[in-house]
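Example 3.2
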Amino acid sequence: MKFAVAILSLLVILGLAYAFSSDRKQVRPGPVLLLLTIQIVLAFVLLKTTVGATVIQGFAGMFEKLMSCAHEGIAFVFGGLVPDPSSNSYTFIFFFNVLLPIIFVSTLIGILQHIKLLPFLMKATGKLISLISGQGKLESYNSIASPILGQSEVFISMKRQLPFLSRQRLYTLCATAMSTVSMSTVGSYMTIMNGITDKAQMGATTGATFVVVALVLNLFGSIIVVSLINPYKVSAEEDNLQVELHHNQSLFEMLGEYIIDGFKIAIIIAAMMIGYIALLKLLDRSVFFLLSHADMLLHSAFNVDPRTYIDPQTHIIPHITFTQILGYLFSPLAMLVGVDVNEAANAGSIMATKLVSNEFTAMLQLQNSGSLSAHTIGVISVFLISFANFSSVGVIVGAIKALNEKQSTVAARFGLKLLFGATLVSLLSATIAGLFM
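Structure, written as tokens:
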């Protein structure tokens, strides 16, 4: 039954991408099927083999050591304000445990770029992906560089070519950037996801499992979706790559820049979390207040005994919150990726929160969502690990605007299509991961 639902889901997701294609005659089924096969094989290896488990454990172990080093720096600055993880009275504080470590990870990325290791790996891997997918060199580089540099920073590395990109190529670059996450926030995702898996008592499955699987599947999924939604051919004259990665900076100039960049990211995420969570809470209370009082007025109008008003079975209008309404609206999407119908409303609410706010807000909602099955937690976790949300459209348009005003106008015009494509990538990754959970 699970495989039948997955096949149906794949057909729906790929069918939607094809239905909204800008030029169906340009779609090449061969590379799409090849990339889909690679996704399925990699999901199986990562989730069902000892090789995959070893890779995930190694990745998780590396980030655990990095988070430990970051904690030392944070504890030095904030002293007794920072909770000690080894203490029996340890309290998880989002700002200290999740956001501030981004500063240290951002610094390491800067060092790896400065010694030219990252540029070499990104270009070499990009060439390999170009051979498999048939994409241009710039598009293939972007699919690798986006999850390393981040959805806004990646455009800085391509700023020489940005003014000359066609509308089709610009859409591909933006959609790919929205479909991934930044390596600087991966450790933060793992911290939250580990809390979710520990709470659900999922045994050997850790938060790192979902993060690694999502990173890998989103990489190939973004190429699949843009190949269907936005197919085109790059001419030999246009197929070149010009990357700029701060080669003229000294070591200390680079360190200062990336440390400050990491701090900016942490503070921006903190501000967005405060704003979005407060706004969602206001909407929840407002919708509940309006519906409950409307129900009270109807009870009075129909002369219903007011004592029965507290009984939910007598409600004419249901007393529900904005988040619950979103859950019901998005429950079909949850069922599409293989979530059980009994958990679809709860899962749909988390998916909707991610789209209207951001992945961090949704992850915290998942952490406090009560009892969900291990399968549902896994599928929704993979769905959440991407930048596919409304705020990311603004981030990308803003990043491009700082580099080229004209191209930012072009990007803004296909903002909703960007979100649509990136969301399909998340749905595709969640569906394939769910096959092996």
